[in-house]
């Protein structure tokens, strides 16, 4: 029995994809099109290939006469909220400078010489339900803007739809991330790890955090991810 390694199978499939004549396919505009292939005996000429497929040794390409396709919008595509869904000030993403990554999907950035935290929609472990989480987060930020001890949003990082098919057509801009006001004191996790709690009025922290949670609960909201790394401090040590 001959066992082929995954790398060679992947390369063979990539070669096959390059042979497909995509101009012959009715791809969907302004989104990601998923193409589903099925081998059906007796169906001929359904999937059109480029001239490079003629005489090719690619096993998948040699099935093209029996391949039938159907298309749909990719259910696993990254879904960006539309800017007009949200009441936030929009900042052009092309004017934002990335200064460093904090963790997956969260960055130190700057705009007009001001520092922010950018939380992007399209992070490495993205799953479509993450967009609903982002929408909820944006909704809560709008509800609690200027409430003490709750981090404030500076706006939405806006961009052209990354799936825009034609540059000349009007397509609503999308939110690629949330811009939050940066706090210079770092996280509570850092304060404990660096044994710097004595520098701050840490005995007030539980009261201040409890006060913020009280505002959430009175409005019918909950916070499901309270941990040291998610509580940041300003220069005076006030938690958010």
Automatic annotation (TrEMBL):
Name used for this protein in its record: Protein kinase domain-containing protein
Organism per entry: Aspergillus minisclerotigenes
Taxonomic placement: Eukaryota, Fungi, Dikarya, Ascomycota, Pezizomycotina
Gene Ontology molecular function: ATP binding; protein kinase activity
Domain Protein kinase: 88-240
Top-rank lineage group of the source organism: Eukaryota
